[in-house]
Amino acid sequence: MNAAPEFEPAPGDTVLAARHIVKTYGGTHALKGVNFDIRRGKVTTLFGENGAGKSTLMKILSGVTTPTSGSIELDGQSVTFSSASDARDRGISIIHQELSLAPNLSVRDNIFMGREIPGATGVDFAEEARQTRLLMADLEEDIDPLTLVQDLRLGQQQIVEIARALSVDSRILIMDEPTSALSATEVEVLFRVIRDLTARGVSIVYISHHLEEALQITDHAVVLRDGAITATANARHINLEWIVRNMVGENFDLGSPPTGYAFGEVALSVEDVSVADASSSERSVVDRLSLDVRSGEIVCIYGLMGAGRTELLECIAGRLQPSGGRILLGGKDISRLGIAERIARGLVLVPEDRQRDGLVQTMSVGANLSLASIGSFVRGMLLSRSRERLLVEASIRDVHVKTAGGSAPIGSLSGGNQQKVVIGKMLTTNPKVMLLDEPSRGIDIGAKAEVFRLLSERAARGLAVVFSTSEVAECLSIAHRIIVMHRGRISAEFGGDATKEEIMAASGEAVVTDHEEHRSHHRDRR
Amino acid sequence: MTDASPDRSRSRPRVSADGFSLAKLLLEGRAFFALIAIIIVFSLLSPYYFSVGNFLTMASHVAIFGILAVGMLLVILNGGIDLSVGSTLGFSGVIAGFLMQGVQLTTFGVILYPPVWVVAVLVCVLGALVGLVNGVLIAWLKVPAFVATLGMLYVVRGAALLMTNGLTYNDLGGKPELGNTGFEWLGFNRLLDIPIGVLVMAVIAIIGSIILNRTAFGRWLYASGGNERAAELSGVPVKQVQVSVYMLSGICAAVAGLILSSELTSAGPTAGTSYELTAIAAVVIGGAALTGGRGNIRGTLVGAFVIGFLSDGLVIIGVSAYWQTVFTGAVIVLAVLLNAIQYRRRVKLPSPAGGSPTSPQKDKATTADPALEKTAG
Where is the ABC transporter domain (chain A) (predicted)? Predict the structure, then answer.
């Protein structure tokens, strides 16, 4: 968006330079001509919101994916990586945000997976185990090399992931959210290891949602927003406020809360609802949460990944069973009803992942749009094609889907239009309450604004809307009320006039305190 | 500033641009062209092949597999597989034979001779029950379809063998004085010169086609086969759909069993062994995707005819049975190969914008093994 952020190439100390990197997925531009330098022996931190393109950029730099266009220079030489192992052979390794370990194998076998040390009879397991022990000693972790990864707790698994990257002797080490499951002490150890590495000339790229923590370790900060670099600066000159301002931006108007009408009755009432963690029964991902939404009201739920937003919405929609509490729709208890019955009574969910949960890729645009309201065009035993066509055409107009027609394959649409199909599908059921889990995820800013405009129009006509987001700017758009979720509970509630800093602070994003507990909850979506 | 609009126009023209290309036509109608090629080749090789009489005879052979394949198609559209249909076919014949011999009710001291239509209905109910067991195992108890139906393959075959002690019911004709004649009607009679079995297949195909294209159930089936999670969140009763397809598949197998035992005027417990594989082959040759959500009745029937006309043709020109097996296998592999080519282009879907860490499973899948990602693409 910002045409040319201040960009000073510093050839002397740049080990890797990415130039004009563009990456598109279908119709979505994940990266829009990014210039990114990795400085030798320094920690370069990449800041950005979810979906800003951080992970995509890192996957490109580590050879996991290839850019649509653009070039990469390693030590001044132009290079292309054919695969992650190609990049690794050139000294670039990556610690993925999501663990990429084989849980059924031992720590030793995971660390040397794909690069086994040859010995007299196949693999030199003793040598591998010895090196594993050294790595674990470096990381101050007491883990036996023969322990199975599945028997380790999440933080230890992350340590193994880090150890694997360290074992390669890389020149460039990319860490994508390496600390999300680590305890405070483990983070300190990791930071010490990072300083050791940089002292030895290793260049680090660091990505973290914990802004203050990242500020402690960073030498150079780069901010990415909507696929473009918005700011770069030396760590000496920046503070938290600078990062937040550049991450969130304020250049695009996503609308304002619809006004000029009074809210109706309470449409949806969530009473003390808890959802148990799928992996451990004693922990709750949603913890005795209560919430009332009136018809015509737009409520935004903000929270970090793993705060319990998705679980809350899926529980209200009927996909997850609550472990306690009840859900009322228009005053009637619907806790025992199935998804189809809840849809029939006017409660719909637009899921977070539209590829996985929203669309049937084998069907046309029209069949997707009409899927939730088949009953409305059945005549006798058979479907009425003419009625279905009318419904589909009305829906395409209604939510402004840009498509060749109802019979076009769903895969021919851009991300934003696919999302509109998912929303349109649920709107054709004439809902009273609409839940949307990250409705703006992976769609460009224009489509985002269109989706929000659609929601505020519907709210003005009496629809109760609850949407979740991990972008602060979206909270401050059309929502009448902002609810911040943290560890399965409502940690704060604001009107539409809250500030970004208030919201982020309540979500735990900018807070370093109570590290340990927070982190163990941070990855609970697995 | 550059990203707002080009996305939607980019991929759209491609759909129509190659819409009429010859390669695409050949690819999409491949099973049909293969059938024509088979007919031409065998007609040239043998003077006996190209005649109405022979076609009708071959069609009645195809009917058994065609009926099984229609049921199998429903299961495969759902993303499942039903290995038990061959055994269900055999068991149905045995039950029909058993009922035709008369049911002795010792407590009343009478022997009941149910009329043929009652036998047919009871056998279909039996097929549905086998399907119900399959469906409940798969939908509610989460047993993988392959394993559940493999188990039922053995269980049902075993039951058929137990019923007869391994022997065959030979006398299915019934007696006029008992009022249970007419069983051979299915296998021997003709209506307008067309064997009844072929007509039954046609009726089942038409019903299947209407179910798939014109009913809510059909739409639910395509949706839950294409993406079960999305279908469920759209209010589709995915579990009921899943159970239903196995029941329908069981009924199709029972009908096929009735026709086969009627044609043979005997019911052996080993009838229909490995027929499930032929049915799966017909569905696959017909262009359905084993992953679910894609396929139709027309293709499946053509697939059944390809297999039937090929193997009968090989018999007519005197190729040994061993070679027939080899040819049939080669045709199946070729069909799957072409399926892979056809669907490969469509499978490349725009994935959601990268870098978004809110989908652990998906991100994990793509990052876990970069090499896999490359080769799969």
Answer: 16-251, 268-512
A396 neighbourhood in chain B, CB within 8 Å: none
A134-139 long-range contacts, CB within 8 A, separation 24+: A135/A111, A135/A163, A135/A166, A135/A167, A136/A107, A136/A163, A138/A163, A138/A166, A138/A193, A139/A163, A139/A166, A139/A189, A139/A190, A139/A193
Cα end-to-end distance, chain B, whole Å: 30
Task: Provide the 3-class DSSP secondary structure of residue A302.
Answer: strand
Quick one: B64 exposed, middle or buried, by C-beta within 10 A (0-12, 13-18, 19+)? buried
Structure tokens at A188: 């300190």
- Residue contact B353–A28, C-beta within 8 A: yes
> Which of A66-69's residues contact partners 24+ apart within 8 Å by CB, and which partners?
A67/A21, A67/A22, A67/A23, A67/A31, A68/A22, A68/A23, A68/A24, A69/A20, A69/A21, A69/A22
Q: What is the pLDDT of residues B318-372, one digit of tens each?
A: 888 888 888 888 888 887 787 777 766 544 443 333 333 333 333 333 333 333 3
Close Cβ partners of A246 (under 8 Å, ≥ 6 residues apart): A47, A223, A225, A230, A231
Q: pLDDT tens-digit profile of B168-226?
A: 887 777 677 666 677 777 767 777 878 888 999 999 999 999 999 999 899 999 999 99
Contact A363 B210 (CB under 8 A): no
Secondary structure class of B17 (helix, strand, coil):
helix
Q: Does A271 touch chain B (CB under 8 A)?
A: no
Q: Which of B233, B352, B369 sits opposite A339 (nearest CB)?
A: B233
Rounded Cα–Cα distance for residues A429 and B90 (Å): 46
Quick one: tokens of B103? 């049911």
Exposure of A162 in the CB half-sphere (CA atoms within 13 A): 31
Is the pLDDT score of A144 beyond 80?
yes
* b/e code A292-305 from CB counts within 10 Å (16+ = b): ebbbbbbbbbbbbb
Structure tokens at B84: 């038990």
Instruction: Identify the burial level of B2 via C-beta atoms within 10 angstroms of its C-beta, where 0-12 means exposed, 13-18 middle and 19 or more buried.
Output: exposed
Straight-line distance from the first to the last Cα atom of chain A, in angstroms, rounded to the nearest whole number: 34
Output the six-digit token pair for B38. Answer: 């088979």
Per-residue model confidence (pLDDT) at position A445: 67
Selection from A209, A208, A127 nearest residue A167 by Cα: A127
Instruction: Answer whether B222 sits within 8 Å of A362, measured CB to CB.
Output: yes
Which residues 296-335 of chain A have a CB within 8 Å of chain B?
A: 305, 317, 319
Helix-helix angle A515-522:A154-166, to 10 degrees: 90
Residue B77 scores a pLDDT above 70: yes
Q: How many CB atoms lie within 10 A of CB A381?
A: 11
In the 8-state DSSP scheme, what is residue A65? Answer: S
Q: Looking at residue B267, what DSSP letter applies? A: B
**At A349, is the secondary structure helix, strand, or coil?**
strand
Measured distance CA(A69)–CA(A77) in Å, rounded: 17
Instruction: Write the pLDDT tens digit of every residue in A246-277.
Output: 877 655 567 788 888 888 888 999 998 888 87
**What does the alpha-carbon distance between residue A514 and residue A213 come to, in Å, rounded to a whole number?**
12
Q: Does residue A395 or residue A186 have the better pLDDT?
A: A395
Q: Distance from B336 to chain A by nearest Cα, in Å?
A: 18
Mutation site for B-interface testing, chosen from A97, A304, A396, A412 by largest number of B Cβ within 10 Å? A412
CA dihedral A208, A210, A211, A215 (to 10 degrees): -80
Q: Strand, coil or helix: what is A344? A: helix
Query: Rounded to 5 degrees, what are φ and ψ at A486?
Result: -145, 120
Per the CB < 8 Å rule, is B8 touching A362? no
Decide if A26 and B362 are in contact by the 8 Å CB cutoff.
no
